[in-house]
Amino acid sequence: MKISHAVGGIIIPDDMNCRFGKFKVDKFIIDDQPLLTMRLFRHVIVVRCECDYASLMLEYTAMSPYFDPIPKGTHAPYYCPIFTKENGQITKIEWAKAIIPPYEP
After folding, report:
1. For 78, which DSSP code?
2. Mean pLDDT, contiguous 10-residue spans, the chain (105 residues)
3. What angle (nearest 5°) sits at the alpha carbon of residue 34, between those of residues 10 and 92?
4. Which pTM does this prediction carry?
């Protein structure tokens, strides 16, 4: 029987190897807000990144305990980060499955 592990207060599920998702980040967020970018990537393991030069967006495929498990061989769904602010400071980042893929300009 496989058991989930806790690492730094985060529960790492035993099916982590099938929890894939995709998300996009604007290049200007990375350039202009590096601390926010580091918080965004705190609980993901990036396995692929593609840069769209025309739109200046980077699309990531990653593993995360916050993504739903998917069957092997299927396409990873898109996720959107949800930011919670208190007193002007981001206090929490959650991931929500996108209803439709992000806009492609």
Report:
1. B
2. 57 82 92 91 94 92 93 92 87 87 57
3. 35
4. 0.80
